[in-house]
Amino acid sequence: MLKEFKEFITGGNVIEFAVAVIMAGAIGTVVKGFVSKIVMPVVGMFTGGVSFADKKVVLSGAVMEAGKVVKPENAIMYGAWIDDIINLLIVGFVMFMMIKSYNKMKKKQQEEAPAEPAGPTQEELLAEIRDLLKK
Questions:
Q1: In the chain, where are the structural domains located?
Q2: Alpha-carbon gap, residue 116 to 10, rounded angstroms
Q3: Predicted pLDDT at 12
Q4: Model pTM score
Q5: Phi and psi dihedrals of 63, rounded to 5?
Q6: What's the per-residue H, E or C state across 111-133?
Q7: Superfamily covering domain 2-98
Q8: Mind listing the pLDDT tens digit for each residue in 38-95?
Q9: What are the angstrom distances between the C-alpha of 112 and each of 65, 99, 106, 116, 119?
Q10: DSSP state for residue 11 in the 8-state scheme
Q11: Positive/negative CA dihedral, 127, 132, 133, 135
């Protein structure tokens, strides 16, 4: 059982999947930074210099006593949600482009693969059998 597990874990598919998960996490971090630090400030500029990350609807304010927060603010953070939606759209588009290029490359490789040599036709086989029977 241990040997089977070792073969499974060192198999190509598991290792490729692990690399894909790690790369997806790294790409997600980069895209999130791109959205929050580059895209959203530009969007904010067109909306009057407003940062979407700070946009919220306060349902109940924070309760403070002696300079300390007793009860934190309860708010709907719709600006952060907009950031997340833009992040999802960008990641989705990047994944779409990656899969599209992968499929294009795979299709090209399949087209370039040499065709299997055709075997003898039925008539050729019958003629060969006839010739062998004549001998």
A1: 2-98
A2: 32
A3: 65
A4: 0.54
A5: -105, 125
A6: HHCCCCCCCCCHHHHHHHHHHHH
A7: Large-conductance mechanosensitive channel, MscL; domain 1 (1.10.1200.120)
A8: 887 887 788 777 777 778 898 888 888 888 888 888 999 888 888 888 878 887 888 8
A9: 75, 20, 10, 12, 20
A10: S
A11: positive
What beta strand segments (E) does the chain contain?
57-60, 63-65, 68-71, 74-76
- What are the structure tokens assigned to 126, written together? 């019958």
- Which residues touch 28 (CB under 8 Å, ≥6 apart)? 87, 91
- Classify 48 as helix, strand or coil: coil
**Sign of the CA dihedral with 24 first, then 30, 34, and 35 last:** positive
Taken as a whole, the chain contains a residue count of 135
| Amino acid code (one letter) for 26 | A
- Asked whether 94 and 31 are in contact (CB, 8 A), the reply is yes
Question: Is 60 within 8 Å of 74 (Cβ atoms)?
Answer: yes
